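Revision sheet: structure tokens.
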Amino acid sequence: MSIVNGVAVAAGSSSPQSPRNKCQCGESTTSPTSSLHTQESFEERKARLLHMARDRRSSSSAGHEKCPFHFDMELDHKPPTREDILPELADSYRSLIKNLGEDPDREGLLKTPMRAAKAMLYFTKGYDQTIEDVMNGAVFNEDHDDLVIVKDIEMFSICEHHLVPFWGKVSVGYLPNKKVLGLSKVARIVEIFSRRLQVQERLTKQIALAIVEAIQPTGVGVIIEGVHMCMVMRGVQKINSKTTTSTMLGVFRDDPKTREEFLTLVK
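Predicted:
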């Protein structure tokens, strides 16, 4: 047994670079242009790889972080889209139903695995989005230096500890520094991070940091009030309990008057 590029290889077997091997993403590493590597000049190869890079993801793309058989611009396959994993995800739900003691083939449950798989992808669609995606140029230069507050934004998320829902309302305030956000973009930022497996504490900070990244304001405040089904349906079963979390950055943390004004306005 030997180690090649971080991969264990049995004695007498081919190396990970062999065309018969597959990368961890499940695709063959055989490239139709690999035979050209010894025939073309460095400049020709560089031009070809740059052309390939324009329409192919690199090995640093999501799903390829640990791929040992490629380096940037030579990737000859793409990671699967989230829709591509629906059949496997549906199979997992089918196994779950069966392990619970139910019959996954009875009429009422026959299509449930695929429905549940599609629903889970929707519940976690935030993994497919970035701040740049939702901004879409909606950052405006404005000489406005007073508080901007968007409050009572509905939020739905999935607790990462028990995979059950939690939901609530988000209030976001910021003190502009010559730039303001389109108002709907604040709600879209909330949507990006809430539509992932989450804990409320992290979600609160991620929203605040995203506002900072987008417009570099003087300060940001975020408050979330949530109801968690992991406390309502199981465990302590306290149906009226609510959890409040907050993140204060910049002048919202350093200036008590600014923080007090924000807290008063979001009540």
